[in-house]
Design goal:
The chain has 314 residues and is α/β, with parallel strands linked by helices. It is 41% helix and 13% strand. Strands 1-2-3-4-5-6-7-8 form an eight-stranded parallel sheet. α9 crosses α10.
């Protein structure tokens, strides 16, 4: 058999193992390559006062989503460690999630918080939470009320984040790749992680040239990384397509732009549930990148995340 065909056949066996749940899943992927999932959300809809996200009308996500639920997912898929991304804009929920997973620091190795950038309270909040070594950075989801655009106060706070050696995830729904370039250029020491393949709607066809050029422009800055995550909700179909070919044109652009050292795996669980099973999404991502060699998948699934967030697998 031709070496390329052999490689593809082996990849197919691995994927089949994931989807069926048989023992080859962990042996072929997650035991031989430790996986750090860098993007999940935890929340409790039964808490007093409820939660700001998800909405009560969300029939898939509006339910308690806690470690006891996610631990079942990690055991089924062999995920070794996890970074939680805070989706609530309530400052005290940063502490809530740190406390929620304090019982298992070996697995829950990092928390990406959510703080009001560009406000007078940002510095004291960051100082407080950053005392916990698990607090690895923040995510820029939107500007808080009263803050419009990248003003002096926003730059002050982002520089503080950079000076502390913390990281910046960026949710692209309210930001774009031009913003990424703006931040990267001004703060070259700040580690920036684009979420969910830039937030692009994936439709199974070749990438548009305009988007491709913007990805390439952002990737020119060595402090910018891209998270290969959230592919099911970006697929524009529910349930999401399970064929790697549907996502391959977008994967290829990101791969060519960022290379093996600046791509990072994340699931976006439990939002993945809208499109399919956790293992199905993991299988699609693995099938594409496994063809590029074990060294690439090792970097994608854990080495780059460990370096970016400063976390370790124990």
């Amino acid at each position: 058999m031709h070496p390329y065909c052999l490689k593809q056949s082996l990849a197919a066996v691995v994927v089949a193992g994931i989807l069926s749940g048989c023992c080859t899943t962990k042996t072929e992927i997650t035991d031989s390559i430790p996986v750090i999932d860098t993007h999940i959300h935890l929340y409790d809809t039964t808490r007093k006062g409820g939660v700001p996200w998800p909405k009560t009308t969300d029939q898939v996500l509006y339910r308690p989503v806690l470690p006891e639920h996610y631990d079942k997912v990690t055991k089924a898929n062999g995920v070794r460690a996890t970074v939680i991304v805070e989706a609530s804009d309530r400052v005290e929920d940063n502490q809530w999630v740190l406390d929620l997973v304090a019982h298992n620091p070996k697995h829950y190795v990092g928390v990406v918080g959510n703080l009001p950038v560009g406000t007078s309270e940002f510095a004291k909040h960051l100082e407080r939470f950053a005392k916990d070594k698990r607090y690895v950075g923040i995510r820029l989801r939107s500007f808080p009320e009263g803050v419009s655009g990248f003003n002096d106060a926003v730059w002050r706070d982002l520089k503080l984040l950079s000076d502390k050696g913390l990281t910046l995830d960026v949710l692209m729904s309210n930001f774009n790749l031009d913003d990424i370039v703006l931040i990267a250029k001004r703060l070259p020491k700040l580690k920036i992680l684009i979420n969910h393949l830039t937030g692009l709607i994936i439709n199974g066809v070749p990438a548009e040239e305009t988007w491709t050029k913007k990805v390439q422009a952002a990737a020119q800055y060595p402090n910018v990384y891209c998270k290969v995550s959230g592919i099911f909700q970006r697929s524009n179909r529910m349930p999401a397509p399970k064929d790697v070919a549907y996502y391959a044109p977008i994967f290829e652009v990101v791969w060519e732009a960022f290379g093996e050292d600046r791509i990072i795996y994340g699931s976006n669980w439990p939002v993945t549930d809208r499109g399919g099973k956790y293992g199905e999404q993991l299988a699609i991502i693995n099938e594409y990148f496994a063809a590029k060699g074990k060294g690439v998948t090792e970097k994608l699934f854990w080495k780059n995340a460990a370096r970016f967030y400063g976390v370790t697998i124990r």
